[in-house]
Protein 1
Amino acid sequence: MKNYNRRNFLKKSTLGAVAASTLSISCQENMSKSSAGKYMGDFAAKPYDNVKAAFIGLGARGPGHLKNFSTLENTQVVGLCDLYEDNVKRESTRLKDYNKNSSNVKLYWGSENNWKTMLKETNPDIVFICTNWKNHAPMVIQTMLDGAHAFCEVPLALTTLEMWDIVNTSEHTQKHCMMMENVNYGRDELMYLNMCRKGVVGDLLHAEAAYIHELRFQMNQEERGTGSWRTNHYAEGKGNLYPTHGLGPVAQYMNIAREEDNFKTIVSYSTPALGRKSYANKNFDKDHKWNKLNYNNGDLNTSIIKTNMGRTILVQWDETSPRPYTRHNLIQGSKGTLAGFPTRVALEGGFEGISEDHHSWIQGKDLNLLYEKYDHPLYKRLNSKTKKSGHGGMDGIMMYRIVECLQKGLPLDQNVYEGCFWSAVTPLSGKSIDENGMPQEFPDFTRGKWKQTNPLNIIT
Ligand SMILES: NC(=O)c1ccc[n+]([C@@H]2O[C@H](COP(=O)([O-])OP(=O)(O)OC[C@H]3O[C@@H](n4cnc5c(N)ncnc54)[C@H](O)[C@@H]3O)[C@@H](O)[C@H]2O)c1
């Protein structure tokens, strides 16, 4: 098995002229322009009659994907891996109920590197990666080098260098790499995509996206589980640490990286960092590890993206402050505005007797007529099957589409470049903050080819 080692990969690839250890971001990006494998924008793999999957990471998130995948027809699970034996054994027991084809599943736990042995020994078609953020890039890259398609939790990677490595590996190996942005499959998000495509809000001007979710309680997971690693990011990280849930849907409304438009620059500022320190002081002993961290990353981050066409996207992030959950999910066009949290719609000229003009929102029960008229066909087709699958059904629709696309040999709904563009907000917002709000240019992970990539259709 080839091992993921950034230096080896770069040496073997056409990037190899310069030692990887000396690469700076700009130098890497320049070289990347001449290092293309085959472009993956509308890539479709050969169809699979039976899709064989392996799973890395069976903590809070992985088990949901395992259930949603293995309860679909013509699927098989060949390997399960986690650091902890109890996670692996619990899920292998459940798997027996979900999927009769998976009785020979191989189980791996213990060492940090057993997932590499699993990839070699089980020969999966696809690998689901649901681990902590720092492991995403090495795991997706090694997965593709070992001949499987990679499906990774959000964010896809943490640095633009890692993102370039992922793009280059996907292009050289001709393997899918999808960051699984489940929010793009929410009912409202799908309906708004449908309404944007139908021109209901006219020409798109501006969007607002967010992940505002008070998650301080995760700090109670001290040794194991999400809070045990995520808490360190509030100290070490900078900027918007979790941009993709809000951004993925609005990026697809705007056809970002697909023919019409692309992210150009970003500016960013953060508030002071107060909430985590105070939560740690209040809830843990003074010599507890959470009280030894220096929480440097501002509680609330606000960034603005300017697109190639001159549109703007406000992106916010806050996992610390006491306020209700929101992803904003707002898209404003020349003829109206669609918004989320709560779901609200305002249309110039009003809507079918419910509203007379755009000065008041259509909301609450009045939205029923809108759902009737504009619910996305994919939601209508799949909702009854997937509504219990997690996050209001979006997780099940996403998994259904992943398997459907693989079995029919279709392009996936989210390509490797979208995963990189959406995730790149983290390092670029951090850099803008370091430079007192200076605009940062997005790397063009497509090397100009986004102009020839098809917009995501309204899938029926
Ligand atoms: N899309 C969503 O709605 C959503 C929701 C929750 C979490 N997530 C994402 O899912 C990912 C996982 O988050 P989580 O909350 O499940 O974290 P978690 O800590 O509960 O689970 C991660 C698991 O990965 C395992 N792991 C870590 N390193 C490993 C290695 N080297 N080999 C094998 N296993 C390893 C850990 O043992 C752990 O069980 C994160 O990227 C998170 O952002 C997404």
Note: The longest helix spans residues 394-408.
Protein 2
Amino acid sequence: MRHFGSLLLGLAVGVPSCLACGGCYGPTSHVEHVRHVKRIQPGAPNATYGPTRALEWGQVNFLHTTDTHGWLEGHLKEGNYGADWGDVVSFTNHLKQQAGNMGVDLLLVDTGDLHDGNGLSDATTPDAELSMKVFERLNYDLLTIGNHELYLAEVAYQTFDGIAKLWGDKYLTSNVQILNPSTNKFEYIGKQYKFFTTQHGLRVMAFGILFDFTAAGCIRRLKVAGNTNVTIVTKAKEMVTQGWFKQALNSTEPVDMFLLLGHNAVRSSMGGTFGIIHDAIRQAHPRTPIQVFGGHTHIRDFAVLDESSTALESGRYCETLGWVSMSGFSKSNSAWTGISPNPRGVPNPTRKATANSTSPFVYSRRYLDWNRATLEFHAVGKQDDKEFDYNSGLTTTAEITKHRSQLNLAEVYGCTPKDYCMTCAPFDSPDNIFPLLSQALAEVVINETRKDIPRYLISNTGGIRFDMHKGPFTYDDFFIVSPFRDALLYIPEVPCSKAATLLDKLNKAGASQKRNIGSMRVERDICVDPIVAPLMARDEPGHGHAFGAVTRRQVVDLVPGYTTSDDFGSDGDDTTHSRIPNYSIPDYFQGAAGFGAEGCTGTADVVFVDFIEKDVLAILGSDYSSSNVTYYISSNYTTQDFLPQFVKQSDMFQAGLPNCTIA
Ligand SMILES: *[C@@H]1O[C@H](CO)[C@@H](O)[C@H](O)[C@H]1NC(C)=O
Ligand SMILES: *[C@@H]1O[C@H](CO)[C@@H](O)[C@H](O)[C@H]1NC(C)=O
Ligand SMILES: *[C@@H]1O[C@H](CO)[C@@H](O)[C@H](O)[C@H]1NC(C)=O
Ligand SMILES: *[C@@H]1O[C@H](CO)[C@@H](O)[C@H](O)[C@H]1NC(C)=O
Ligand SMILES: *[C@@H]1O[C@H](CO)[C@@H](O)[C@H](O)[C@H]1NC(C)=O
Ligand SMILES: *[C@@H]1O[C@H](CO)[C@@H](O)[C@H](O)[C@H]1NC(C)=O
Ligand SMILES: *[C@@H]1O[C@H](CO)[C@@H](O)[C@H](O)[C@H]1NC(C)=O
Ligand SMILES: *[C@@H]1O[C@H](CO)[C@@H](O)[C@H](O)[C@H]1NC(C)=O
Ligand SMILES: *[C@@H]1O[C@H](CO)[C@@H](O)[C@H](O)[C@H]1NC(C)=O
Ligand SMILES: [Zn+2]
Ligand SMILES: [Zn+2]
């Protein structure tokens, strides 16, 4: 799938890489040997301010990552999220040490979706060949699988043979199986569950439950409907009736805590299935705490399921490190051997899950921004850069730098003159990415033999995954902004009466399907990860004061970022941000080219992404069938190809190259 490499690396000849940059962005060549890079990726920004409150440490504490999608290099253009995987490796080492000193447990958990989103994971064949090695540097206690591990057979097998084998019984896939080619039988990719005792005596039973991600529930995307047919995803409703699950719950071994990991929304209202598992456990264990860690919807969220059960979701793309702590274990309700009631010298969790709770358990939750300033703040006593870094962290950072260089990810193709976001500005605003992408479609998607025929080019907003930030536009950004490879089809010379109204009709159809929970809704929210509001820092200060009146310290000039509200209220974000506006966007956008001032008069070619062929034909009516549809350029020219081509030839993106800086 990397064939555009030849197309675009060829085009790069003569483009100077990051000349004279103040905050020079990424390595150009062999930079790791000549620069004394000690932490974070070269040129990655740090946060300008950070947290003000220490973490609340309980008896059992959790650090949670989810939906990392290959972003192990950190966000090279955003100060809020500039730390890399090596920094987090060092951080978790510190926290494990702190936990040991305090006599408490700390568990590291991940809930899946390890690639599709960043060049570090997606520029290799197969995906994640190098990034997986980096990911494995973090010493997780438990992990589970995401839907992005299951679209393609080769990726599913890579997961089965790689990560599942490496982590052994820590990799939990309670409802996901794969056809083992050597036995020709379906087998669980990881383990169905794990029963273990923590360092301080708690007897834990853990499961890993993927949401109901099945081919039948999804329309065409990524060329496959849902999970690859070499895998089976058992729906939660069915899973709880299976013998192995009932037996696990009916075990005579006492259980002090259930842990549910899942690539799965923490709320049923958002398609999550934890509620089903929770209810099944409650039938057998009415009071035992159930701690839940979710993912997939790419948001920060914390839900109270009952007085002894809470659920955390920790965002996406290495922007958030989630923290949950709890206390309330004693000799009378568990085999706890650690400190009671709480570790000393640090804040402790104080909140009951519900107002009228009679359960002994209290909780805290916090969403940490993924940057050096935050990690150093919480690595108590290690605020100095030198004291903070562990050798294992530095090695990991160096490894990422090396891979980025190997993969040419820092190769610069143009200079993005300003920020363009997906939903922080109105759809037709010059700050929105879609007018720019419409222009790109119009200017570069051309079939030479039909270049004089006017054309509409329709693509889907769901295929765009990330904002474009001011600064060098690199090879990495191809994967970050538009990672999907959907081919472009066309129907020649459609009368203007139909061609000019097609976009509008598609969007209306999408909207009505949403109301009916039709295919469009399913595609965007379930089968592919959802679009959420842009959570990136933008350059302008703005908005800060209006939303800064939080109960905490007054911060002047807040940086835009997460402003989370969850079942515990609005104090979960570890660093205070100003709110980023969130405008709704339609399902489709289009470029238009070759029309005169009077617009569409006779006929126009209608070009569109392949997976909406059926919808397009339905709207055009009975005169049209699939026999009227062919590739506009070729079967291998896709939605991943037009933006890089545009950046390369656009004056707007070339003009700033000699002095291209971030922020
Ligand atoms: C697409 O395939 C054709 C041959 O089928 C090849 O000549 C061309 O280089 C490919 N295009 C890209 C972008 O790789
Ligand atoms: C999956 O689908 C392919 C193509 O339709 C088919 O050849 C293959 O036998 C199927 N595999 C399984 C395990 O069903
Ligand atoms: C649970 O275990 C008991 C005895 O250990 C047995 O009688 C009962 O049938 C089991 N229930 C289930 C649902 O397996
Ligand atoms: C607590 O309050 C909720 C709703 O207000 C109620 O449904 C629940 O039964 C109460 N629980 C207890 C233990 O009183
Ligand atoms: C990041 O910011 C923190 C707090 O401002 C500072 O102590 C630290 O030295 C910075 N680290 C790097 C690597 O820039
Ligand atoms: C943004 O708005 C959309 C609807 O327009 C909504 O579904 C989504 O939850 C909002 N996101 C945030 C983070 O507020
Ligand atoms: C669609 O294709 C069929 C068969 O190739 C052709 O007869 C028909 O005229 C085409 N329809 C339109 C509207 O061009
Ligand atoms: C362009 O369109 C012509 C005619 O429809 C087709 O034969 C050709 O394959 C298309 N692609 C290119 C790159 O010319
Ligand atoms: C590069 O841009 C920065 C900020 O716009 C400016 O301060 C600096 O003077 C410029 N440097 C050069 C060499 O043009
Ligand atoms: Zn995801
Ligand atoms: Zn997902």
Note: The chain is about 25% helix and 20% strand.
